[in-house]
Amino acid sequence: MRPAKLFAILAIFQLCLALVNGPPRPIDVYFHATYFVVGHTHLVGLMALTSVLFALVYFAASRWVSHPLSNSLGLIHFVFALAGFLFMSSAFTIGSAMASRFRAEAVFTHWLLLVFLAGSFCFLLGCATLATNCVWTAISVFRTKENKASA
Fold first, then answer.
1. Which helix (H) or strand (E) holds 102?
2. Could you tell me the residue ranges of all domains in the chain?
């Protein structure tokens, strides 16, 4: 239940941050002949939505499963998701501020891209931790049912 509360608090913080005006310039993304404009509000809003979904998963698992999800793996998931949010948001904010003030050097832009990719990787590690937590709980539920049936 603790990870559900932590993710709910993180989602509220992210929603408040999304409502506040972000950096003045959005980031332009050109991907496979398609042009996207991604604003700070879009990024933080999407991360708030994922935090709400994570909170709902932990809350539903604590209510409907006989064995709740592991709190330690839930805290690790929260730390990875928080690190991903902080890395991606800071890289976006710094990159947008740099682009609005002066033309950034290519080296500095590469460092910001690496920070953004590190944040994405941390977020994906958090998702893998959630999947591991769910599989671990499912195995323990099936073992308990198997032990009760054999006894």
1. none
2. 2-150
